[in-house]
Amino acid sequence: MDRRTYLATGVAAALAGCSELGGPGEPETNEERTDGADGPTENASDEPSDGADDEDYPDLVGTFDDFENLEEWWEWQDIGTLEADSTRSSGGSQSALLTSSPEDRGQVRVRRELEEPIDVREVAPGLDLATDTDAGVVRIQLQDENAHYVEYSQRFMGNMPLTRHNFGITRIRGEPDLSEVIVLQVIRWFGDDAEGRQWVDDFHFVPRPTGGKVMVQFHGGYESHYREALELVEEYDVPATAFVPTGRVREDDAVDGDRLTREQVDELAAADWTIGAQPANGQLLDQVDSDALEDAIGEPIDWLAEAGYDDGARFFAYPGSRYTEESYELVRDNYELGFAGRSRSQGYAGNPHLCSTTETPGPGEATDLLDWTVEWGGITTIPFYRLDDPETLEALEETLSGIDQRRSADELEVITPAEMAENYVYE
């Protein structure tokens, strides 16, 4: 079966149950989670993707709470409501539905107090998420007995089925004792006086990498990546990835535009950059017509393979971290990793098709971002876009110089998408 036939067949199968769905916010009926796992989520993490035995991972890894019994959860300070929803689940009989109304100040918080403390020093939490808003941010707080906590968060797209998401550490309060976590808290903020619904299921843990890992990426295929970044990347000897909208690559300098030429892409590859994929036309995927999505997502694979960049054809970056159910399914069917979201210090990828990236740092911010990754570990992926102003170039050099210094001190490791796919995915 050729790629196009496979694409069409895969999408048709993935969306076969969608024709009877209602409008935005209407719950599906006993849908399956859209992260590629088969069967109940309790079995989703039985086999680590790098071939290691389960005994090599902390005992907490896997499903911790499947929300089949909501009696252990309660609404914090009566903000929002918590109820079971049997029409959505990640493999069990129900999920937890968190609802906010204007009188709830636009938020909902639910908590579970554990009978015995748990040690989370070697793991990171995650959730399966769905919402009826356009997009959202969910936070997970792991608290000790003194209410000091580590907070994980993730930004995600709305109007999707329940989908597994990777979370990263974004806030610390006090000096939490991560070996004695006694409270789990899930928070969704909808905005001042806003209302909305948030579904959560399969509260799980994934392994957390030992030490801090970073990736440096350049998104959009801009000529400034060649003109401004190549020399700096070579100077600091930092592995880099360029995600290229292949339909916008210029044949040569005679073609007007601000995108890379074919020769410049070849030079980046010759300098050991990974050349990955973005939609051929470079558009945000939630703005691409449904009948054009297959080509937008699939054609870069052919272009990269024909150009000799088969390794990079395994990896995809969502422009603007935006996607729809159909485009996400196409990426999942055709790539090993996809990059989206807004989080740092992510654990292993429980969903490899929504690996986290951070926001592009400004001057002074890269140092803090790298120090955070050194202190708290996990995987921090730093993206850059246009490099056409002095502040962005300053931040890029600060990032590369800071990585070099911390790498030399054995505080950070720089990894590539291929290394992440091989070593830091746990499904």
Please give the structural blueprint:
Elements: H1 3-14, E1 62-65, E2 73-75, E3 81-85, E4 95-100, E5 107-118, E6 123-131, E7 135-143, E8 149-157, E9 163-166, E10 168-173, E11 181-189, E12 196-207, E13 212-219, H2 223-236, E14 240-245, H3 262-270, E15 274-278, H4 290-306, E16 315-317, H5 325-334, E17 337-339, H6 365-376, E18 378-384, H7 390-408, E19 412-414, H8 417-423
Parallel strand pairs: 13-14, 13-18, 13-19, 14-15, 16-17
Antiparallel strand pairs: 1-12, 2-5, 3-4, 4-12, 5-11, 6-9, 6-12, 7-8, 7-11, 8-10
Helix pairs in contact: 1-5, 2-7, 4-5, 6-7
User: Whole-Å distance between the termini?
Assistant: 26 Å
Low-confidence stretches: 1-34, 36-53
Give the rounded overall mean pLDDT: 88
SS-derived structural category:
alpha/beta
- According to CATH, the homologous superfamily of the largest domain is Glycoside hydrolase/deacetylase
User: How would you describe the shape?
Assistant: globular
**What is the N-to-C order of secondary-structure elements (H for helix, E for strand)?**
HEEEEEEEEEEEEEHEHEHEHEHEHEH
Q: CATH fold name of the largest domain, please? A: TIM Barrel
Summarize the structure in words.
This protein is of the alpha/beta class. It has two domains: 26-50 and 59-206, Galactose-binding lectin (Jelly Rolls), CATH 2.60.120; 212-423, Alpha-Beta Barrel (TIM Barrel). It has eight helices and 19 strands. The strands form four sheets. Strands 1, 3, 4, 6, 9 and 12 form a six-stranded antiparallel sheet that branches. A hairpin with a 5-residue loop joins strand 7 (135-143) and strand 8.
